[in-house]
Design goal:
The chain is α/β, with parallel strands linked by helices. It contains 12 helices and 23 strands. It folds into 3 domains: 40 residues; 207 residues, P-loop containing nucleotide triphosphate hydrolases (Rossmann fold), CATH 3.40.50; 178 residues, Ribosomal Protein S5, domain 2 (2-Layer Sandwich), CATH 3.30.230. The termini are far apart. Helix 8 crosses helix 9. 28% of the residues lie in helices and 28% in strands.
């Protein structure tokens, strides 16, 4: 059989192929992404359907330790992963610089090494001395935790195969260098090839890996989008720089749901998990204040009581300001339009600011009633009772639509100490007979809110 080698150029972003080098990819429009590739084939090829490669019934497969997961002991981290780290899986953790990715992963490595055994922490950005200083501050002292400062991929794989740890952690993938790839570390081709080789090691040797990735200015993981498709799980660590809360979200998870949320608080001794976030997200005000309303939202399977703040003030601008923090801007604009149309409120000369207290971001429609009530409260100067919680989805006609999991929302409010609730009428009919110590008021439309607020006054 005569072998032939054909040279071509391939876009590292969209895999478009061309026989000659191009500056710009005609498929995705990216610049300087073509790299030289060689395709080696045989003029005559014979394919054999080997027995081990034949398709088999799904019930015919048997694997040992199929459902085994490594639990770190950090409940917030394990919940986002769906119960722990699956053997042989590849977990990618992204986040902005300084948000606490390395701190969280080092604490996880400490817990894992104590619970399951040998854990290897590979740092490509810092020296062993720097990692040791951080470990001392975080009280990390596990005997089965091994540290390695290395950027060469071949040396890293050699150490992984030599130690054979249960968990291997790479901090970070953008600094790792594969000598077989003729490009600088952090480039698209380097990141893709390094991840591919590490994934092969993880799958073949049943070693779970956690990879830290940098993010771009747009907030996406740096490198090709295919990087997120290659790994099994993608987690993002979010949070405001001037707030102590950090949110761990699952963007992709082949072994569990992507709706879970882990909440941590940054302290001097590291990230500590927040087991009762509702109390942490609520302010400790001593009296009712106009423009402040408490609502209950859901993040995954967890109900959260969040305080919605609104400020309506006179504007001297041609186009009044509409500023939101932690809530969707377009959703707030829609609610303002409904209030103007259905209640006759005039906001064309008013600046409106809406904020979700605590630095948390909420996208659920069930907070519509809380936003609307906070805006009305600030505009009219009428305060809502401190022991009142509200939730409901607002329609364009001004009606309140029922929301899911209303019973769990009421239970969360009752657990914190709230005595009253304002919810959609349909939800109130279902829950009125279930709660004795919490008064449930059901409303049909947004117009009913003014009557309730006037009575409170």
């Amino acid at each position: 059989m005569k072998k032939n080698t054909k040279e071509f150029f391939k876009c590292t972003k969209c895999n478009y192929e061309t026989p000659q080098w191009l500056g710009r990819c005609p498929s995705c429009g990216a610049w300087n992404t073509f790299v030289r590739q060689e395709r080696t084939g045989n003029s005559i090829q014979h394919t054999k359907n080997k027995k081990e490669n034949r398709a088999q019934p799904i019930n015919g497969f048997r694997f040992s330790g199929e459902d085994q997961r490594y639990q770190s002991g950090i409940k917030e981290f394990d919940r986002v992963l769906g119960g722990g780290i699956v053997l042989g899986s590849l977990v990618l953790i992204g986040g902005e610089p300084g948000i606490g990715k390395s701190t969280l992963v080092l604490q996880v490595a400490d817990k894992l090494s104590k619970n399951i055994g040998k854990t290897l922490y590979i740092t490509a950005e810092e020296s062993i001395r720097q990692i040791h200083m951080r470990a001392k501050r975080l009280s990390v002292n596990a005997e089965e935790l091994y540290l390695l400062s290395e950027t060469d991929l071949d040396q890293i794989i050699e150490q992984i195969l030599y130690l054979k740890p249960k968990i291997a952690i790479i901090d970070s993938i953008q600094i790792i260098n594969d000598s077989s790839v003729l490009s600088v570390p952090g480039s698209v081709n380097q990141v893709k090839n390094c991840t591919s080789r590490l994934m092969e090691v993880a799958k073949k040797n049943n070693i779970a890996m956690i990879i830290i990735g940098h993010v771009t200015k747009g907030g996406a993981i740096a490198g090709p989008k295919i990087l997120e498709h290659m790994v099994d799980t993608v987690l993002y660590l979010e949070g405001e720089r001037f707030h102590s809360f950090r949110l761990l979200r699952g963007i992709k998870n082949r072994f569990g749901t992507t709706n879970e949320l882990g909440i941590f608080q940054m302290k001097n001794e590291g990230l500590s998990e927040v087991l009762n976030p509702s109390k942490m997200l609520l302010s400790s005000r001593k009296q009712s204040i106009p423009g402040t309303v408490t609502t209950v939202t859901f993040e995954g399977s967890r109900p959260l009581a969040v305080e919605i703040e609104a400020l309506v003030s006179s504007s001297f601008l041609t186009n009044p300001r509409r500023i939101t923090t932690g809530v969707d801007y377009n959703r707030v604009s829609l609610i303002i339009a409904v209030l103007e149309n259905r209640l006759g409120l005039k906001f064309q000369y008013k600046d409106i600011y809406v904020n979700a207290a605590g630095g948390i971001k909420i996208n659920e429609p069930a907070i519509d009633l809380g936003i609307a009530l906070a805006i009305i409260s600030s505009s009219k100067g009428l305060a809502i009772d401190m022991d009142t919680v509200v939730f409901g989805e607002l329609g364009l006609t001004g009606e309140l639509r029922s929301v899911s999991m209303s019973e769990r929302r009421i239970k969360e409010a009752q657990k914190i100490g709230y005595k009253k609730s304002i919810i959609p009428l349909e939800n109130a009919r279902q829950l009125s007979s279930l709660f004795d110590n919490l008064a449930i008021k059901g409303i049909y439309s947004i117009k009913d809110l003014l009557d309730i607020m006037k009575k409170n006054k």
